[in-house]
Structures are given as C-alpha cells and as structure tokens.
Amino acid sequence: MEAVFVTATNSLLSTSSPLQNNKKCATNLKFLSPSSSRNYKKISCQVSKSKGETEGRNTMNSSSSTSSSGGGKMDEYNTAMKKMMRNPYEYHHDLGMNYKLILDNLIVGSQPQKPEDINHLREEMSVAYILNLQQDKDVQFWGIDLQLNVDRCKEIGIRHMRRPAKDFDGDSLRSGLPKAVSSLEWAVEEGKGRVYVHCTAGLGRAPAVAIAYMFWFCDMNLNTAYETLTSVRPCGPNKKAIRAATYDLAKNDPWKEPFENLPEHAFEDIAPWERKLIQDRVRALRGT
C-alpha cells in the first residue's frame, strides 16, 4: 500500500481509498473557513473520501523544515522504532510535518514543528483540536519549542490537549489509551472542526489512539478499524495494547483473569453491551 506524504520536495498520490462499507455515525463535515468554524455540523465516524473527492485537502504541510537535529538523531530514533515496534517504517524529521485524513473529522500525523505548521492545520485542514501524545522528553529530543506552538494554537482558536504516553512502550500505551480516547471523543462530539492526533512520527501512539476510538465508538471491530487506518497511513501501531485496553475497560473487575492469559485474538471484537460499557467508562474520564 502506498502512503501519501506530501512535502515541498515530494508528492506521492495514494492509489487507494479508505474502506467505504463501515457504518456511518453522523453527517458530512462542511469545509468552512476558520472564521466560521462554529457552523460545523457534529460529526463522528464517517470514513474519509478519496483524495479527488476531498479536492486535494488530504495533504501534509507544504512548508518543510530543515532539521536542526541532523541525521544522527533520525537514525537513532528510527533504529529504536524498528527494534521496539518491530516494523519497517521510518520518521524523517527533515521533511516536515506529515499526516493523513483518516475519517472526515480525524487526522493522524507527526508532530507539528513550528507555528507555521499550526497555521497550516487550521487554514488548510480546518483543524480545531490538537491531541498531543508526546512526553516532554520527546519534544526536547527534536529541539521543538512546544510552548510556541501552544501559544499559536490559542491565538488562532485551536484547542491544544495533551495525553502523554511513553514511546515504544505497550504498557504505557495500554494504560493511557482510555484517557486519550476520552479527549478525542470529546473533541469529535464538540464538532467545531477536525481533530489532529499526533505523537512524534505518527506511526505508533497516534494511530493507536485513532484505531481505539474507531473500535470503541464507530461500531467497527478492531481489525476493521486497524485496516481502515493503515490502508490510508501505513504504520505499525500496537494492536495488543489496544486489545488489552479494551479488556481493561470491558472487564474492570478485581477478580478478572490477567489479560496475558487470554487467547491471542481475544477482544478483537466486543458485544454491544461491552461497547456501551466501554463508551460510558471512557466518557466518564473527561476532564481527568
């Protein structure tokens, strides 16, 4: 499957579109100017259209940045990612922010590097919320001035949220997924614009949060949610951590059997009553 990564120096067009047979949970998103963001309809789980149907909006920041970190840091990060995540994907910080539209209201991508990236997300992609999954040390590693980006968000009307999780750590992701999905689901329900979910590379934590949201709130099983996202943005999020977080929410009893004792594919799907229980428990985490 061919990814779409568009920079000032590189533009690859995807040859495929997301799955079209998933249950639609709400109405289409209107493309409005930033000044009229309050007129957005509430939206939820409609799979995004192909690039041609969205009039070329499914792109990444056209203003790439020159990496101040150098190739050494990218090599170090990619080596760790390949070893810990056991996937072949790489992050190229020097090419600038990259992302993909997953649902009509949900974008998954890499870290914004500068205020101009924030401007781009607001003006070109109608983003009204940013959910940042990075720890402080992740941002510092790449020499990014996070406060500068947060300040820019405030200036142009983007709600910036943080739900840090440790990179390359399935246990941290498992424990952090419910609160992260809680923030994502709240932003979607607010319906004032698109939600941009990012970690560092947009290949592990961010897609995992998006997949968990689709699994728990969009009436998809885990494999359908996983394929929906990875067919658009090739990446390797930790499916086991999503299954484990699902188990924790659905079977939150002190006498439950340890997740590690369950069959390999347990909790790749859930019963309607389990989904309702998970939704209630995730929504109860709002504001925590």
What would you say this structure looks like, in words?
39% of the residues lie in helices and 8% in strands. By secondary structure, it is α/β, with parallel strands linked by helices. The protein has a domain at 96-285: Protein-Tyrosine Phosphatase, Chain A (Alpha-Beta Complex). The chain has a 5-stranded mixed sheet with strand order 1-2-5-3-4, sandwiched between helices. Mean pLDDT is 82; it is low at 1-44 and 50-69.
**Spatial arrangement of strands, main beta sheet:** 1-2-5-3-4
Helix content: 25-40%
CATH superfamily of the domain at 96-285: Protein tyrosine phosphatase superfamily
Oligomer: single chain
Structural class by helix and strand composition: alpha/beta
Q: Which CATH top level class of the domain at 96-285 fits?
A: Alpha Beta
Give the end-to-end Cα distance, rounded to a whole number of Å. 38 Å
Uncertain runs are 1-44, 50-69
Instruction: Output the number of helix runs.
Output: 9
Region (Disordered): 48-75
Domain Tyrosine-protein phosphatase: 98-255
GO molecular function: phosphoprotein phosphatase activity; starch binding; sugar-phosphatase activity
Pfam families: DSPc
